[in-house]
Amino acid sequence: MHPENPQPRSISTVADSIRSGALIAYPTDSCFALGCQLGNRDGLDRIRKIRNLDDRHHFTLVCENFAQLGQFVHVDNDVFRAIKAATPGSYTFILPATKEVPRQLLHPKKKTVGVRIPDHVVTQALLTELGEPLLSSTLLLPDEEEPLTQGWEIKERLDHQVDAVVDSGDCGTSPTTVIDFSGGEAEIVRRGAGDTSRFE
């Protein structure tokens, strides 16, 4: 996939496969991620299996824009301003979920979910074509320090577990910075690619 001018036909093919239940590996502005359609239970189970995740893991809804993000999480005015100033970018925000979010994605106790708006041309083109968020998780394999960064390597390692690898060249090895706003104040949960100074 061309990194600056992704081919519309290729984007459309990937979007169609996601709608048909595919689990993909795709690039973002922080690192590669695993993604599938929001209601895809099989895709969700496969992500849990690949990453060896428990039910307390916060999944992320990767959104095209702020309007879409607002359908899936509750955002008050102060939090709205803070998130708006930091998006699009390499941040994941944990917020109380709305009823639009499938229950199996929610943190069992807090009823929260992660959301982000990436600053990546290929991901944005895919989200525009899809018309809905991608259910996502960082492509970080169990017992490994850093995410995989090369499309060919991901295909080699996960060939039987993912249906497609979207490759637009290298992306980074730093996952997103995670900010938990579910308690009203910014709490830095993970320091990653996004600058944390604005939240401290």
Q: How would you describe what is shown here?
A:
This protein is an alpha/beta fold and 200 residues long. Helix content is 29%, strand content 18%. It is built from six helices and nine strands; from the N terminus they run αββαβααββαβαβββ. The chain has helices at 8-19, 41-51, 66-72, 77-86, 121-130, 151-158; strands at residues 24-26, 33-37, 60-62, 91-96, 112-116, 134-138, 164-165, 177-180, 187-190. Strands 7-1-2-6-3-5-4-8-9 form a nine-stranded mixed β-sheet, sandwiched between helices. β1 (24-26) and β2 (33-37) form a beta hairpin. It is globular and about 40 Å long. The protein starts with 7 loop residues before the first helix and ends in a 10-residue tail after the last strand. The model has no long low-confidence stretch (mean pLDDT 92).
